[in-house]
Amino acid sequence: MWKTSVLVHVLVLPLLLLLSPASAELRQETQETEPRRLPPPGKLDFGYVPAGLYETLAHYEPGPIGILFHIVQTFLCAVQPNAFPQDLIVKLAKDKFGALHTEYQKVIYYEIGFVVCAAVGLLFTVLVPLVGLFFCMCRCCDNCGGEMHQRQRKNADCRRGLLGTLLFSTSLVITMGVLCAYAANQNLSSQVKNIRRLVNSNMRDLHTFVNDTPMQIDYLISQYATAKKKVIYDLNNIGPLLGGRIHDRLDKEVHPALDRVLNMAGAMRETKEALDNVNRSLEVLQEGTGKLKFNLSLVRSGINRTLNDPGCHDDDSDTTTVQLCHNIRQSLSQLQISANYTRLPGVDAQLEKMNRVLRTDLSSIVQRGFSSLNDTPHVVIEQTRGVIESVLNLVDGIGQNISSFSKKFPVQKSLSNFSIFVNHVHAKIEDHYPEIDKIDFYRWIGCITLCCMIVLVLAFNYLGLLCGTLGYDKHASPTTRGCISNTGGTMLMAGVGFSFIFSWVLMGVVTVLFLAGGNMEKLVCEPFHTKELFKVVDAPYLVNPEWKNFIPGFLYGDADLELTAESLYSTCKENKGIYLALRLDKIFNISSLLKTTAYTKDVMSQLEGIKVNLRGIILLEEEGKQNLRDFSEAGLSEINHADYLEEVNKGVTEVDLLSFATDLEAQTDLMPSGSLKSTLKGYCGTLRQIHRQQVTPMEKTTSSLNQSMRFLERTTSDLPNKVSSVLEAIDAAQYLISDNSTHIINWEREKYSATIVGYFHQYIEWIKTSVALEVAPCKPFSNMVDTMEIMACSFLVDSMNTFWMGLGCSTLFLLPSIILAVKLAKFYRRMETEDVYDDIETIPMKTMEIGNNGYHSERTQGIPNPMMASVPTCDTVNRFPRASAPPRHIDW
After folding, report:
1. What's the confidence (pLDDT) of residue 739?
2. Contact 54, 780 (CB under 8 A)
3. Structurally, how many domains does the chain consist of?
């Protein structure tokens, strides 16, 4: 009970720190009005939640011995190819194995591979000692190869070599099996020593979990300052933010209207300048026209007088000269002015009115309108000062409430209790290490003893093969084999004896370990890796008939909550927060509680109190409007532009003086030299001078007058309507600001409020994400499960399975080893009798004494046979030219 209480405090209480101060309000499911979907506010950077480093690496790499593990697993898959019996196990577990008598066929079907192998092992265990007993009794009766006699065969050497090779190969296989078993035994012992390291690592991770959780929660609380800082910044800059947005919205409509007024002000100045230019030009042209007219009349009179010269009409004069004079006299009528500027009326009245209009600086009035509009941010600041102060106080209060609320829960005390619990458990585990080491030592001794049983047999086999091979003499007869060869055969038979003594014990051990380790691998380890084991654990109504899911049923009393062992393990495996893994939202739903926080609603309601009145903004004062009306009533439309343009288009003179002077000079050049010619040439120069000094300036003035008049014509065209349109645009813009800006202000206020509240929402969403994924990451708990799986499966089961695999392989190959050793021993041991061949002509029968077994004995009653002594003992053919019993064909 104390452990459960500590666990609940550790997992739940830290999360309570994230609540709003008004806990009673948070428990009420209130429906908030969602704000209008607007562009998200600026992204806040809350940094990274500080996280400790978990040192446990819950992953096991067996190294080279992993090849043996894989071979054993492959063999088990061949023995047991059936799928994991999830439904069968669940059914048996629910019925507490009471359904075993009805489901035994399915159990046997699933276990058929293990049953067959176990039956073989059991038969081996029972039959081998019986066979060994009968074999021993049979040999004692000189049967089953017990008689010390060996027939001579031609293929004896071949058979001996083959049997030796087969026995050596079999021994090698047995050796490999023993080495595998020994490696598995040593691996298990070495991995047992790693248990302490893994346990200590897991315990340190739990301490890291306990120590980091308060720090992570404090970090979440401290990051409220980030949101608060941004909120305060935006509140203090409400002028540029809210006022600036309102200004930008209004400026789209107002700026064009004020620009039109500015354009009209520019037109006023240009109109006044044009009128000034018209007056000046008209005065210059009128004065210049009089002077030009006078000078042209003088030139015309002077040329007429010159043409009265006798050389132009005397009978003695040249006909050509007379004709030229006549032509010149007729062209003199062209030397006259063309335009009459004296008839054009002046524009003094209009100019006087424009001077009065321009006494009002319309541009300055318009700039005051711009300034008034640009002062919108300042207006917003002044009109929202009280609301901003209240919101700032509210924001400060929220931070104080969160800080004070976190101190109401004894989180540190609960975590300290959990840390004490972890230390207590760790100490208990430490107390069991000596016992574990002792048990492992006894286990190691037992496994080594089993291996030594086979090693003893292998020692006799290898020594027997070595002695028999080295001591074998192909010239020696079976009865005369050497001591070393005989010792080799004896060792082989000793190995056979020990094989019969130990093999059934070894097979019994192998069978037990095979059943235990194989089923552990197929029913626990392999389903754990494929997560099929979790499906059994998570089977509905398995633990409790009333609980669909036992974990939430046990923790929260809500068995319908989707929380399974597999999801819990997988979530922790991904190092996510324990809040998400244990579905603590069932008892503390941050999503729903933080969604209805009172302070968010308070901030929103306070910001809704922002009221902005822009009636004080005057775009164009009445003086400016009157100035526009005066401009339209300045009498500009009374100017007769057509008369001016008509006179301007006539030109200054009727003929171009330069062309006239050129023609006059050309005609004069045709005259004979004399006073007439020189006088006319002088008038040509005078005309050019008049053009240069009078006509050219007047033409420039005429061009300027033309431009001014055309500008006035364009400007004054429909001027009253233009001014009226400008005034209407100004009035519409003023109406938008004064009476119709509420919609714009409300819209921008909602956006501004959404931005402010959005910072709180970002903070809340960051808290929810951090709590789910980063705060109190439960990787240590999945590491504990993985560690137990590593110790149980990778350390124990894999090593145990490899041990029985190697031991069983060696034990099985003891059977062919027994057969081969028995047969091979005949070729190494010294026989008591051997095949004899009789020769009547050379060896009298009376000199030979037949033993009771029917075979010849080399010595009779201790007296050497002289005939036999004279023949080398190794020459069997000469010693025994004829066998006492003729060899059968089949023996050859």
Report:
1. 83
2. yes
3. 2
